[in-house]
């Protein structure tokens, strides 16, 4: 196992080729020693007889065909695991960087994970209250769900994620054990610091494991970061029984790294230069959210991604949306109107919502109210564009009411303060306040019984 | 099992063996020390290429590759229904018993349970001439479905021995057949069939019977025939999966094969949970008793995803051969096409559009060609209907998978992002969806639902088209300036959209609706329109009509009239008449 090979046969971007190796396995991790001083890791991505093509996780800048020693490790990429990972900070491939010393590792696991058997999954049904009306009422977060935030550069996705962390009843209410796994891929230092401060201020820092690959860290390394984070999350959830919330930011940087490696391999791209396997690759991570039947913990994921050019049809948000169980979409126009959180509710969706709301969990009218808010809000834009053509005064009375409804929705319902934490009942009551702006005949998504109960004609 | 080669190179799911080998095309092979299942995909003098159905991590050059001599096949026999398999028919429950919550590779499992004893009733006699397809025994496979074991397609001869009725496993001989060449062959409850070969039938014919789904926009507007093909394209979150769940639950097929191809794990769990609890109104048993699930979720190996479509189709054809109407839900065919693309990319084949291989169109065509209403060799009639979800990149229907699918299916249920955003479900766009079966099915609707069903359908579609062009105008200038008859078209369009097209999957009454009620709903909407028209021709303005609650009332019929109380429609007719008289009297 410990044969060392001196020299390489080619270096091309993050890829190196070495010939004459014995016993190299596909997907095996190799260790490089450059000049005998600098250590790097790599992974065998193709192997032909005694020739291995290796993807180097760190920068290949100092490597030469002569100065590099290569050693096979005999295993694929593994993460050592310890219960005291909570409260600690690691680099993008899982080495502690907080100066608090080594951990007492109890086990080691392949970071790629194995697929969960669908017959052993438990369908997620538990509502997590975030205190944010747009989310709780319209795109309800469910424990064990994967619900990404689709954002754009400069939009307040970090603030929103932080507010969810601060306000969500991750387990506090029922005294259940919870934890947060935070993975940063290519984000700036101030973003990582912002999250650390948030965790400290809300008193959960002892429950947080951070994996940081920052903007100036090696690009290829960030291909490992989310996998390492999810391996830790699964350990904490399924071995230790905790409810784990995983925040992955920014998935766009991850995908760009994948594209970079793919293009240096000269693979045939599909759309916008991204490799054809981007979908499978993202799925192998997003699908690691969930609940295992008969086990106490859970893994909930909130991946954050910035949509290039705010384009929701770009392959990164597009493929993500095809895998995740909904999405929360932030919108520049709303942000421009100073609405916080600037959630565009129409393209936002929570697919697991239906199982976790209603009489048993939130309130009987929840689904109907949500459907109605969506349906009515979708008419606001028509009224607005009509107003811009024929003038507001010329609008019919109903259209005028839609304008006012849209205004109130954005400022009084979707919009809220950074520290405003609304209960679900407050949120639903507020929703009825909104619906009262409209004439009753317009509320065709709510059945007569509920309308009779909650809609007061005289208001 | 013989070693015929050693691994030379590994690139993800693709493994190469160097030189000229004795492997056969499409042969099933075992790859490496862990004996992972693979399939030979190309052969030439220089090398043999194999796609591996499991994760190849850790595999090394120099490891052996074993031959099996037969193509990648599925086992067909009792035990398929009320069960869930991966893309190559390995039972997921058995895998869970072996390896817990995660699927580890190299699981050595039998495809169907070989220990279970099934009660068998033999239906042939000694001396009887048999051909491929002849039914030799009946087994109550589930509470709902009587399994009919058949002579495998390529065998012909005379029965020389049968067993007594009793309990047998799928590997015990049930009858012995002397073939035409005098050799004797044992026939068991189970048989093997290569997944990429369609099972043969006597003849194919045009279907004139709809696959009734209980979904109004399908049954009334864009129906599919039994043995037909349909595509459901739509961007993420537009409702493809929900629509397939609904059809799987409520359609009048005998058997459902649900293929989760590269989609979410939780959705399969949901189907398993839901279908086990839901009662099939036709049989009174749980829906799982007529269902088989193929689950190759997005995080499972990509080569098995490619195979899952064929596995599911072969299972469906097998039940068709018994004389059943089978419906396949394939969610999503785009993931299958992408698996083709991924494998093709690894093979460095010349790509055509957007990286997809040039053979994409022909693969899609051969898949949908396996649908059809058939006359089987045993003279039963059976059908395979295929309903495939398509997940276009960026929600853009001009991409290669949608376009090529459109060429080979006869129903197109296009889902619309804008409709989904306003939560108009099912988000089927009524303007660009179509069904080419309407003509073929017209007589059936006339005879079995109502004489004017097809006519009414046409009128409803016309109103929707008129409404849509009027709405383009309204968006620019508002509705006030329109003449009253056009305002009426808009109002009736609204009633159709909200009261008829929108259908709430979560409402106990509305989730599935019988054809008779669908017909009556169209009738009553058209009746309302007729009376309103007459009022308008008498000079009554639309604003006056809209003050009445009759429109709201008609919209609510879907919730207010239970599916088994269709006599209530008479009352609605009276209500419309009263509304008419009231307006006439008050304003004459
Ligand atoms: N008929 C319906 N009735 C009520 N809600 C629906 C209906 N169809 C879809 N929905 C809602 O839309 C959501 C998304 O639907 P679905 O999962 O079927 O989308 P999809 O097209 O399969 O998306 P993807 O391509 O990402 O898998 C559902 O979770 C549900 O909330
Ligand atoms: Mg789907």
Automatic annotation (TrEMBL), chain A:
GO terms for biological process: proton motive force-driven plasma membrane ATP synthesis. Residues 356-454 form the ATP synthase A/B type C-terminal domain. The gene is atpB. Residues 131-350 form the ATPase F1/V1/A1 complex alpha/beta subunit nucleotide-binding domain. Pfam families: ATP-synt_ab (PF00006), ATP-synt_ab_N (PF02874), ATP-synt_VA_C (PF22919). Belongs to the ATPase alpha/beta chains family. Produces ATP from ADP in the presence of a proton gradient across the membrane. The V-type beta chain is a regulatory subunit. Residues 10-64 form the ATPase F1/V1/A1 complex alpha/beta subunit N-terminal domain. Keywords: ATP synthesis, Hydrogen ion transport, Ion transport, Transport. This is V-type ATP synthase beta chain. CDD domains: ATP-synt_V_A-type_beta_C, ATP-synt_V_A-type_beta_N, V_A-ATPase_B. The keyword Transit peptide does not apply. It comes from Alkalibacterium gilvum.
Automatic annotation (TrEMBL), chain B:
CDD domains: ATP-synt_V_A-type_alpha_C, V_A-ATPase_A. Residues 110-196 form the ATPsynthase alpha/beta subunit barrel-sandwich domain. It comes from the Bacteria. GO terms for biological process: proton motive force-driven plasma membrane ATP synthesis. GO terms for cellular component: proton-transporting ATP synthase complex. One of its GO terms (molecular function) is ATP binding. The keyword Nucleotide-binding applies. ATP binds at residues 234-241. Keywords: ATP synthesis, ATP-binding, Hydrogen ion transport, Ion transport, Nucleotide-binding, Translocase, Transport. Residues 214-435 form the ATPase F1/V1/A1 complex alpha/beta subunit nucleotide-binding domain. It catalyses: ATP + H2O + 4 H(+)(in) = ADP + phosphate + 5 H(+)(out). SUPFAM superfamilies: C-terminal domain of alpha and beta subunits of F1 ATP synthase, N-terminal domain of alpha and beta subunits of F1 ATP synthase, P-loop containing nucleoside triphosphate hydrolases. Its EC number is 7.1.2.2. Residues 443-530 form the ATP synthase A/B type C-terminal domain. Produces ATP from ADP in the presence of a proton gradient across the membrane. The V-type alpha chain is a catalytic subunit. Belongs to the ATPase alpha/beta chains family. This is V-type ATP synthase alpha chain. The lineage of its organism: Bacteria, Bacillati, Bacillota, Bacilli, Lactobacillales.
């Amino acid at each position: 196992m410990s044969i060392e090979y001196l020299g390489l046969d080619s270096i091309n971007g993050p890829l190196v080729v070495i010939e004459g190796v014995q016993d190299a396995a596909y997907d095996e991790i190799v260790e490089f020693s450059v000049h005998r001083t600098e250590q790097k890791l790599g992974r065998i991505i193709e192997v032909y007889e005694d020739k291995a093509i290796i993807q180097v996780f760190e920068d290949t800048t100092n490597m030469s065909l002569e100065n590099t020693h290569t050693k096979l490790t005999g295993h694929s990429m593994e993460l050592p695991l310890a219960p005291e990972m909570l409260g600690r900070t690691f680099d993008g491939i899982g080495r502690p960087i907080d100066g608090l010393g080594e951990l007492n590792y109890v086990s080691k696991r392949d970071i790629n994970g194995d697929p969960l058997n669908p017959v052993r999954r438990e369908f997620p049904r538990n509502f997590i209250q975030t205190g944010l009306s747009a989310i709780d009422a319209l795109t309800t977060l469910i424990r064990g769900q994967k619900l990404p935030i689709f954002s754009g550069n400069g939009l307040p996705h970090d603030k929103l994620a932080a507010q969810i962390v601060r306000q969500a009843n991750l387990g506090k209410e029922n005294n259940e054990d919870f934890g947060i796994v935070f993975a940063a891929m290519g984000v700036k230092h101030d973003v990582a610091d912002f999250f650390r401060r948030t965790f400290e201020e809300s008193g959960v820092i002892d429950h947080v494991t951070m994996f940081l690959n920052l903007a100036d860290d090696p690009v290829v390394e960030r291909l490992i970061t989310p996998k390492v984070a999810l391996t830790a999350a699964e350990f904490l959830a399924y071995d230790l029984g905790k409810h784990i919330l995983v925040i992955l930011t920014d998935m766009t940087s991850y995908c760009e790294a994948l594209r970079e490696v793919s293009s240096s391999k000269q693979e045939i791209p599909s759309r916008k230069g991204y490799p054809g396997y981007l979908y499978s690759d993202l799925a192998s991570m997003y699908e690691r959210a969930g609940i295992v039947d008969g086990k106490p913990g859970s893994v909930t994921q909130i991946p954050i991604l910035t949509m290039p050019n705010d384009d929701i049809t770009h392959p990164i948000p597009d493929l993500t949306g095809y895998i995740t169980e909904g999405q929360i979409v932030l919108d520049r126009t709303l942000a421009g109107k100073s609405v916080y959180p600037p959630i565009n509710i129409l393209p936002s969706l929570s697919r697991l919502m239906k199982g976790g709301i209603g009489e048993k969990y939130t309130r009987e009218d929840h689904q109907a109210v949500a459907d109605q808010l969506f349906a009515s809000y979708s008419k606001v834009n028509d009224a607005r564009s009509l107003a811009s053509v024929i003038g507001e005064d010329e609008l019919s009375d109903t259209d005028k009411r839609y304008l006012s409804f849209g205004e109130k929705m954005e400022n009084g319902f979707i919009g809220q303060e950074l520290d405003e934490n609304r209960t679900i009942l407050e949120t639903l009551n507020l929703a009825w306040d909104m619906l009262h702006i409209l004439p009753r005949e317009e509320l065709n998504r709510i059945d007569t019984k509920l309308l009779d109960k909650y809609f007061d004609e005289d208001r | 099992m013989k070693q015929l080669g050693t691994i030379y190179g590994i690139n993800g799911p693709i493994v190469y063996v160097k030189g000229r080998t004795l492997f056969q095309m499409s042969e099933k092979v075992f790859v490496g020390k862990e004996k992972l299942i693979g399939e030979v995909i190309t052969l030439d003098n220089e090398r043999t290429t194999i796609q591996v159905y499991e994760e190849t991590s850790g595999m090394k050059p120099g490891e052996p590759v074993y031959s099996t001599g037969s193509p990648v096949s599925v086992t067909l026999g009792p035990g398929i229904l009320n069960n869930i398999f991966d893309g190559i028919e390995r039972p997921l429950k058995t895998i869970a018993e072996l390896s817990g919550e995660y699927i580890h590779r190299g699981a050595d499992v039998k495809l169907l349970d070989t220990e279970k004893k099934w009660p068998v009733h033999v239906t042939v006699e000694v001396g009887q001439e048999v051909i491929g397809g002849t039914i030799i025994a009946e087994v109550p496979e589930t509470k709902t479905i009587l399994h009919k074991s058949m002579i495998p397609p390529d065998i012909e001869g005379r029965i020389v021995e049968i067993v007594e009725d009793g309990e047998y496993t799928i590997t015990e001989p049930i009858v012995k057949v002397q073939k035409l060449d005098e050799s004797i062959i044992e026939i068991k409850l189970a048989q093997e069939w290569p997944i990429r070969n369609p099972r043969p039938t006597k003849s194919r014919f045009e279907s004139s019977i709809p696959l009734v789904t209980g979904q109004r926009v399908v049954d009334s507007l864009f129906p599919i025939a039994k043995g037909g093909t349909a595509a459901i394209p739509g961007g993420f979150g537009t409702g493809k999966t929900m629509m397939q769940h609904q059809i799987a639950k409520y359609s009048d097929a005998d058997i459902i094969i649900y293929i989760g191809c590269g989609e979410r794990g939780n959705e399969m769990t949901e189907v398993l949970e839901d279908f086990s609890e839901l009662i099939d109104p036709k049989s009174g048993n749980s829906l799982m008793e007529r269902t088989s699930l193929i689950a190759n979720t997005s995080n499972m190996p990509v080569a098995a995803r490619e195979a899952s479509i064929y596995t599911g189709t072969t299972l469906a054809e097998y039940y068709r051969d018994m004389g059943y109407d089978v419906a396949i839900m394939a969610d999503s065919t785009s993931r299958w096409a992408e698996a083709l693309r991924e494998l093709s990319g690894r093979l460095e084949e010349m790509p055509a559009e957007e990286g997809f291989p040039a053979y994409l169109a022909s693969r899609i065509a051969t898949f949908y060609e396996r649908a059809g209403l058939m006359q089987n060799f045993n003279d039963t009639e059976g059908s395979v209907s295929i309903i495939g979800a398509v997940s276009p990149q960026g929600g853009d229907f001009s991409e290669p998978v949608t376009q090529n699918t459109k060429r080979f299916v006869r129903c197109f249920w296009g889902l619309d992002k804008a409709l989904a955003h306003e939560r108009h479900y099912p988000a089927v766009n009524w303007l660009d969806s179509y069904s080419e079966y309407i003509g073929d099915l017209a007589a059936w609707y006339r005879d079995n639902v109502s004489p004017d069903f097809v006519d009414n359908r046409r009128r409803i579609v016309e109103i929707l088209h008129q409404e849509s062009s009027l709405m383009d105008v309204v968006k620019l200038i508002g509705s006030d300036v329109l003449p009253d008859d056009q305002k009426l078209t808009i109002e009736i369009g609204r009633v159709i959209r909200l009261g008829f097209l929108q259908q709430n999957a979560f409402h106990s009454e509305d989730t599935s609706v019988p054809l008779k009620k669908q017909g009556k709903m169209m009738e009553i909407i058209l009746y309302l329109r007729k009376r309103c028209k007459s009022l308008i021709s008498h000079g009554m303005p639309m604003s006056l009509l809209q003050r009445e609650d009759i429109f709201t009332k008609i919209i609510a019929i879907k919730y207010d009239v239970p599916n088994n109380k269709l006599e209530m429609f008479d009352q609605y007719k009276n209500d419309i008449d009263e509304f008419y008289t009231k307006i006439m009297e008050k304003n004459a």
